[in-house]
Design goal:
Elements: H1 3-16, H2 26-45, H3 52-59, H4 67-81, H5 86-103, H6 119-126, H7 130-142, H8 151-169, H9 173-186, H10 190-193
Helix pairs in contact: 1-5, 2-5, 2-7, 3-4, 4-9, 5-8, 5-9, 6-8
């Protein structure tokens, strides 16, 4: 799956769930990216990490299920083994960036994906604590100025950084993005009337 396909899927899900009924600014959506990164900090501080093996084991149950039961089981297993973890929060940050790229019609096709990170760069980024790393990622987001900085560059830089951190931590961020998108698709309109 390329970044434009991910972008379109994130955006279409947000539209279908009513999240683009108002005309909101880039700054609004970028603040939501920051909020996901801060949730990742809290999850890291609490030591909350996904239990992928358990999730896959429970999802791999070969008992025949109705479509409705299969969807319910997916949501229950996601909530039990993935929700509220560092991995989920970082995938949420990616999804919010991809959604905004879709909303603004920004093509990400020029970006080689999957990302490849130099060994030296990963070693340098590994020296930061998780909280320091998040602070470093948030700085360009918070400094965004539509008059001085094309937002497409910001998306690419932050997405590369998120995938780099996942690689350093040893998990497949794309897999988590796909699981979270599937979870989001199954949620009710406006996720049960929560504010966006």
């Amino acid at each position: 799956m390329n970044l434009n396909e991910l972008r379109d899927k994130a955006y279409q899900c947000a539209v279908a769930h009513g999240w683009h009924e108002e005309n909101l600014s880039n700054e609004h959506f970028l603040c939501l990216v920051i909020s996901e990164l801060m949730e990742a900090v809290e999850a890291d501080r609490k030591g909350k990490h996904a239990k992928v093996a358990m999730f896959k084991e429970w999802q791999g149950n070969s008992v025949p299920l109705t479509e409705e039961t299969r969807k319910r089981r997916f949501m229950e297993d996601f909530e039990a083994f993935i929700k509220g973890t560092v991995e989920e929060e970082l995938s949420d940050a990616c999804i919010r960036l991809l959604d905004l790229a879709g909303l603004r019609g920004i093509s990400l096709s020029s970006v080689p994906f999957p990302f490849h990170h130099r060994k030296e760069y990963k070693e340098e980024r590994s020296k930061l604590t998780f909280t320091e790393w998040v602070y470093d990622v948030i700085r360009p987001i918070a400094r965004y100025n539509k008059d001085n900085y094309p937002i497409g560059y910001l998306f690419i830089g932050v997405l590369q950084e998120l995938f780099c951190k996942a690689e350093i931590m040893g998990f497949d961020l794309l897999w988590f993005i796909e699981q979270k998108m599937k979870y989001n698709e199954l949620r009710p309109y406006k996720h049960g009337d929560k504010s966006y």
